[in-house]
Amino acid sequence: MSSNNESPSTLKSAVDTATGYVQSGIAAVTGNPQDKAKAEQYKDKAAIEHDLSHSAVKAGPVTVTPTGAAKDDSDRTQGKWDQTIGSAKETVGNLVGNESLKQEGRDQNAQGQGKEAKGQLNDLGKGVSDRVQGALGSAVAGLTGDRTEQEKYNEIHDQGKTRQRGVEVELDKEASAGQK
Description:
This is CsbD-like domain-containing protein. By secondary structure, the chain is mainly alpha-helical.
């Protein structure tokens, strides 16, 4: 099993799951209850690690994961603000019967949605890019034995993962709201 002092990883959870299934196969052949218990431990740890590696919490314009925190792209924050103000203008326009204000609110809301989407794409692209750069850099540094450089690249990877998870949390929330 992977050590407890490492960051949660989807890859490690997949390896632990595979190890658990191999261990289950061994237990089935040998009939050894210890092998069966060990297999279940691997599978349970893999499930927990998978869940942790995909967990993220949004706190305003910041995403927090088990591996760190990342601030949202400014377009995401401004886009949300524009949507809020646009919706308020549209509501007030409806209440007072002002078509111009109502339309202005709709336009600002639509522009805000576009700006937020642009910010999400920026964060998603940067997140994926940082994860790849961090993983490759860490692997090379590990091969050369440079632990300081390896840690630096691990941090780049983790920052990218946090950015990516922040976008995923928002998109999942929007999709859930759309289904209700």
